[in-house]
Amino acid sequence: MFKINCLNPIAKIGLDNFSEEYAITDNYEEADAVLVRSASVHELDLPDSLQAIARAGAGVNNIPIDKCAEKGIVVFNTPGANANGVKELVLTGLFLASRDIIGGVNWVNSVKDDPDVAKLVEKNKAKYAGIEISGKKLGVIGLGAIGVLVANAAMKLGMEVYGYDPFISVRSAWHLSKYIKPSKSLAEIYKECDFISIHVPLSDATQGMLNEEAFKMMKNGVRILNFSRDSLVNEEDMIAALKVGKVFKYVTDFPTPKMAPLNEVVAIPHLGASTCESEDNCAVMAVSQLMDYLENGTIRNSVNYPDCDNGYPDNAGRLAIHHKNIPNMIGQFTSALAQENINISDMINKSKGQYAYTLVDIEIPSTPEIKQKIKAIEGVYRVRIVK
Ligand SMILES: NC(=O)c1ccc[n+]([C@@H]2O[C@H](COP(=O)([O-])OP(=O)(O)OC[C@H]3O[C@@H](n4cnc5c(N)ncnc54)[C@H](O)[C@@H]3O)[C@@H](O)[C@H]2O)c1
Ligand SMILES: O=C(O)CC[C@@H](O)C(=O)O
């Protein structure tokens, strides 16, 4: 029986896919695997029972992925599963940034009981006027699952779209419209674009990338959209740029105490992935990946371990070994098994950065003694008996 703990509410359609071999537990400390959305795992201990964490979503900055890797805990996410939900809100954001729609609606609410409201509207509406997005230049930074959908959709709405992503995947490149202009530098995006939307993961490399230096290069009155993570933007620098009108509107899915009260900021309560469809897609994908990992040792869409699939374990035994990606690990595994006169019937080894993963199928059922022998090898983080 595998015990699953949910750190956030997870869509029922996903949880319903767990077979009777699984039980949902309220006790994180005894969980074999955890499902999470935005709850932070950084402050939590990682119990020895924990084998996997599945993020029902894209961003994994709420999970200590290296610490997990070193304990042999595989961290999954669900690439693309909520991308359409986010894209639709980004399109909404483009329109909210083009005229002061929120300011105007709030003002109408403040005068709604006035019998002369219709006259007041005609007298005051100019304050909330703006521009059309058609014909304007949009810069999309990060052309992954979301960025590509945003770029293609904005192009269809008549925008001239520039895209920047030095690490674009083949899959994304396939899906990107040929009408999107590839930018060679961020500077080109900053200098050319009337609207800029950022779709990169938060990391040491991207933290604070929209800062004073970047704003200096931008057009006066640029509109900036951030549906990725708050600290991609340097808050003080953004506030300064808003005050002088360098940035006309900042639309963000991540309100902060300093940003939320500003008139030039449209602060949305992290709603990007909050649609029935996105929540269902993420839950179904996360649960499927967890089950395949727990039952077969298969890794799909992990952010700290490599993809690795040796199918259903149809030999007598299977060991899943998490280890450092250094020379002579496989040699030591095979020697250890040979010393016990155990024949290997199949084996697969994959690596991702400094971490590696080996699935070894053997001709006898795995035992705690075999597990212990492999675990004793220097550089091994975890050994799991799959079968
Ligand atoms: N608001 C929400 O509810 C919501 C929902 C989903 C995702 N997100 C956020 O959006 C981010 C993107 O999601 P996604 O599904 O498109 O992820 P993704 O992994 O498919 O795409 C990210 C893209 O950013 C690119 N990239 C990385 N560093 C870059 C850099 N320095 N400059 C330019 N491009 C760079 C990568 O090459 C990749 O193509 C997530 O990491 C998450 O933080 C927010
Ligand atoms: O789960 C959510 O609501 C937010 C998800 C989103 O921020 C993500 O990175 O996928």
From TrEMBL:
InterPro entries per UniProt: ACT-like_dom_sf, ACT_dom, D-isomer_2_OHA_DH_cat_dom, D-isomer_DH_CS, D-isomer_DH_CS1, D-isomer_DH_NAD-bd, NAD(P)-bd_dom_sf
Keyword Transmembrane helix listed? The answer is no
Q: Which top-rank group of organisms is this from?
A: Bacteria
One example GO MF annotation: NAD binding
| Catalyzed reactions per annotation | (R)-2-hydroxyglutarate + NAD(+) = 2-oxoglutarate + NADH + H(+); (2R)-3-phosphoglycerate + NAD(+) = 3-phosphooxypyruvate + NADH + H(+)
| CDD domains to which the protein is assigned, alphabetical | ACT_3PGDH (cd04901), PGDH_like_3 (cd12174)
* EC number, as in UniProt: 1.1.1.399, 1.1.1.95
Write out the pathway annotation from the protein's UniProt entry: Amino-acid biosynthesis; L-serine biosynthesis; L-serine from 3-phospho-D-glycerate: step 1/3
Q: Does the keyword Oxidoreductase apply?
A: yes
May I ask which residue range the UniProt record assigns to the signal sequence? none
Q: Which UniProt keywords apply?
A: NAD, Oxidoreductase
Q: What does this protein do?
A: Catalyzes the reversible oxidation of 3-phospho-D-glycerate to 3-phosphonooxypyruvate, the first step of the phosphorylated L-serine biosynthesis pathway. Also catalyzes the reversible oxidation of 2-hydroxyglutarate to 2-oxoglutarate.
Q: Which family does it belong to?
A: Belongs to the D-isomer specific 2-hydroxyacid dehydrogenase family.
What protein does this entry describe?
D-3-phosphoglycerate dehydrogenase
- Give the organism the record lists: Dehalobacter restrictus
